[in-house]
Write a structure and sequence with these properties.
This protein has 649 residues and is an alpha+beta fold.
Length: 649
């Protein structure tokens, strides 16, 4: 969902914890497995006794009213011997009949909870058909939701539209269902009967439009991929169809992008160039994230009069077309639809990565705009001091869809994790592998942490403790002093929410301006709030030093000052009395003065790690494979660290 589409207010309910404990670092956090804001805990537990496999919605609709009627069939299987099955439908609908396996049955109804007898053995399949009619609720008739189905006219174009928007808890407001993120239906059909002058858009492939001969037509959409309850959609209006195709490298066939645009002479010409660009975005994400998950069907858009977009699977509902909005919703087809958050606490899996998709689009297609975009993201996050990406109150819709935390901070920490991986080829391979590992399924934020660790061998517990579960951001200050060819730097930082996150231990880039030589970026390993480092043989630097020059980290910059109080002699790192030779090197070097085993890491001047080895006194280090250039050598002993610059020729 686009961050511009946020509820103005929402009745606050205390969150309910239900599920297994997941450990991140030293803290235990119980992941909320809340399925609905309209059922009791006991009723939610009952919905877990069966698995949904298939929905078939067969509804009569129009564009002038949200009134609907028809039948919804739900196929499921019992996870244990099951006398009855419980599902949800808004209490304001009139139910004509419910059938189980084709036979009419008696049922009980308690507000939105419907319970029907199924008498199924463990693993036995059963089918429930519900005939119903009525008007979905509005915010006035259902203060806890009222957004599942809407009717309005476009204030710009004048077209009348009825459309669905079920995220997070509103699917039951217009069709009978089980609202569980972790129970995706294997497939879904949606047959929509509308007046013949209208079109109806939905998920999957439009297999046929049947002219019923009475002024009505039935649009028969079939989607043969797993889908979460809130991603099933419909939009009804007087539309024109406008189609384009994407041709991603490696795709077996061109990918259809099917667009239902207001039937208005001015609308399509106004948006056509923006719609056409969807193909470019599809081709980009196909490369970065892997194959489009639904490429055997389609992608597309249905217009509806609201200020944002909703990532309905294979056919986004969108109020307008801009590069940012279109790429955000398209990114959701991977992050949110193919891989869906396993709880609303972990909405970052959906919205953080979809928001980062906006940045990736700019970085690759409009590079002059990407830096400004990320700065705007950081500035919005730092408008307030606190707040975590992880959502503690999974019933608070405003908090779930916080533009500052879920969207902007969520995107910014993906950017930081990319920086920590320090290898773009590997980072995007991790993203593609994650899409395969969790295809058609759900994931927690912790699952992505483990994917990072498995691929890199690095410990991402601190990153998640500080940036995902933690709150606030650092403000960095720097003192420095030149002594001959060496420089000593002291990096200090405070945090905006020290009672929650007192220290940020992510790496940090510092750019040194060297007259006549060129800029040098050195990456520092930050482990506490004040650290002193020595860089040897760096040459003369100017007074211009930049902290995090490429904006990888959400941060403020305090003071950067040259200080006569810093002294290389007083710095404990200087007591290591180490040097490297020969420098320049013809492909090998040794460490003079080394008396014990040490860890040696070599970085290029962009901070990318190029080699890491353990060394002993008198070892000869081979760096022929690095080629010609300048590199930073970091030597780590038990309590000390020293850096040198080496030139290979």
């Amino acid at each position: 969902m686009s961050k511009s589409l946020l509820a103005v207010s929402f009745l606050f309910l205390g969150s309910f914890l239900f599920g297994q404990s997941t450990v991140c670092g030293k803290k235990n956090r119980v992941q909320s497995q809340l399925k609905s804001n309209s059922l009791s805990i006991a009723q939610i537990a009952e919905t877990e006794y069966y698995d949904v496999h298939f929905y078939h919605l067969d509804l009569n609709m129009t564009n002038m009213s949200t009134d609907l009627s028809g039948t919804v069939r739900m196929d499921a299987s019992a996870k244990q011997p099951l006398d009855s099955a419980l599902y949800e439908l808004f209490s304001g609908f009139t139910i004509t009949e419910i059938r189980v396996n084709g036979n009419a049955v008696d049922y009980s109804r308690n507000n939105s909870a419907i319970k029907v007898p199924v008498n199924a053995a463990q693993n036995e399949n059963f089918s429930i058909e519900t005939d119903y009619s009525g008007t979905p609720p509005t915010a006035a008739t259902n203060p806890l939701g009222g957004s599942g189905m809407s009717q309005d006219d476009s204030p710009t174009w004048g077209n009348e539209v009825v459309w669905s928007l079920s995220e997070p808890f509103s699917a039951y407001e217009w069709f009978p269902c089980k609202q569980s993120l972790t129970d995706k239906a294997d497939s879904s059909y949606f047959f929509i009967t509308v007046p013949s002058n209208l079109k109806a858009g939905s998920n999957g492939i439009l297999e046929q439009v049947v002219n019923l001969g009475n002024g009505f037509s039935r649009y028969e959409w079939k989607h043969r991929h797993p889908i979460d309850y809130y991603l099933i959609s419909v939009s009804v209006a007087s539309y024109v169809e406008y189609n384009v195709y994407a041709n991603p490298a490696g795709a077996p066939n061109p990918i259809l992008i099917q667009n239902y645009i207001y039937d208005n002479p001015q609308t399509l010409p106004y948006f056509q160039d923006d719609i056409d660009e969807t193909a470019d975005f599809m081709e980009l994400f196909y490369e970065l994230y892997g194959p489009y998950p639904f490429e055997d069907e389609k992608y597309g858009h249905c217009m509806a009069p609201f200020s944002g977009g909703m990532e309905h699977q294979t056919m986004t509902t969108q109020g307008f077309f801009t590069r940012g909005l279109t790429t955000h919703e398209l990114g959701h087809q991977w992050w949110g639809d193919n891989v869906t958050c396993a709880s609303w606490c972990d909405i970052w899996i959906n919205e953080g990565f979809a928001s980062y998709s906006e940045y990736l689009m700019l970085e690759n297609l409009y590079p002059n705009e990407s830096a400004g975009h990320m700065q705007d993201v950081h500035d919005n996050v730092m408008n307030q001091n606190g707040g975590s990406v992880w959502v503690l109150d999974s019933l608070n819709e405003n908090r779930i869809f916080s533009g500052r935390l879920t969207y902007d901070k969520g995107a910014a920490i993906v950017h930081t994790m990319r920086y920590m991986v320090n290898n773009d080829e590997l980072f995007f391979e991790i993203l593609r592998d994650f899409q395969v590992s969790f295809k058609d399924s759900t994931a927690h934020g912790i699952d992505f942490k483990e994917a990072l660790e498995d691929a890199t061998g690095l410990d991402f517990n601190p990153v998640f403790e500080e940036w995902y579960f933690g709150e606030g951001y650092p403000t960095y200050s720097l003192l420095w002093q030149q002594s001959g060819e060496d420089v000593i730097v002291q990096i200090n930082h405070t945090t905006s929410k020290p009672n929650v996150t007192a220290t940020f231990t992510n790496d940090l880039d510092i750019r040194f301006i060297r007259p006549g030589i060129g800029d040098t970026i050195v990456r520092f390993d930050i482990s506490n709030n004040s650290q002193t480092f020595t860089i040897s043989n760096i040459g003369t630097i100017a007074s211009s030093i930049l902290i995090d020059p490429e904006n990888w980290i959400i941060n403020q910059v305090g003071s950067i000052n040259q200080s006569d109080e810093l002294s290389l002699i007083e710095n404990g790192e200087n007591n290591m009395n180490l040097s490297i030779y020969p420098n320049p090197s013809f492909g090998t070097f040794q460490i003079h003065g080394l008396t014990q085993k040490a860890e040696l890491t070599i970085y290029d001047l962009k901070g990318k790690e190029r080699k890491k080895v353990s060394v002993l006194p008198n070892d000869i280090i081979d760096i022929k494979n690095l080629g010609e250039g300048s590199f930073i050598i970091e030597i780590q002993l038990v309590n000390n660290k020293k850096r040198f610059k080496i030139i290979t020729i």
